[in-house]
């Protein structure tokens, strides 16, 4: 599923812990809070896995927040499903909040 979203930040880790190689990244995407209950209003950021650190490292030179075209993929382990980011492409720098 391809979406245009506001990415507020990224993080990555590529190293070893206890001899085990770890290569991961994440993007923080702005989303609307669930307003249907009447107890929430506004936005928050949700952390989505990027897979490997390279996807995050490729964006480190940019200023955040960014508007990006993001391809989300739903994956499951048979019990729990979640959305991950398959690809991320910056489109423009997001405008500051008024």
Layout of SSEs?
Blueprint: E1 2-17, E2 20-32, E3 43-49, H1 53-57, E4 66-76, E5 81-93
Antiparallel strand pairs: 1-2, 1-4, 2-3, 4-5
Task: Write up what this structure looks like.
The protein has a five-stranded antiparallel sheet with strand order 3-2-1-4-5. With 98 residues, it is mainly beta. It is globular, with a radius of gyration of 15 Å. It contains one helix and five strands. A hairpin with a 4-residue loop joins strand 4 (66-76) and strand 5 (81-93). 5% of the residues lie in helices and 61% in strands. The longest helix is centred in the middle third of the chain and has 5 residues, at 53-57. 18% of the residues are buried. The chain has one helix at residues 53-57, and strands at residues 2-17, 20-32, 43-49, 66-76, 81-93.
Q: Helix and strand succession?
A: EEEHEE
Strand order of the largest sheet: 3-2-1-4-5
Main beta-sheet strand count, sense and barrel state: 5 strands, antiparallel
Number of helices: 1
Number of strands: 5
- What is the terminal separation in angstroms? 30 Å
Q: What general outline do the C-alpha atoms trace?
A: globular
The structure class reads mainly beta
- Report helical residue fraction: under 10%
Give the uncertain stretches in residue-range form.
none
């Amino acid at each position: 599923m391809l979406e245009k979203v506001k990415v507020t930040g990224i993080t990555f880790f590529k190293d070893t812990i206890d001899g085990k190689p770890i290569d991961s990244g994440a993007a923080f995407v702005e989303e609307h809070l669930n307003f249907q209950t009447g107890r929430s209003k506004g936005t928050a950021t949700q952390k989505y896995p990027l897979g490997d650190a390279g996807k995050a490292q490729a964006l480190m030179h940019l200023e955040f927040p960014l508007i990006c075209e993001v391809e989300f993929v739903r994956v499951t382990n048979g019990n729990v499903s979640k959305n991950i980011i398959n690809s991320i492409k910056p489109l423009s720098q997001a405008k500051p909040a008024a």
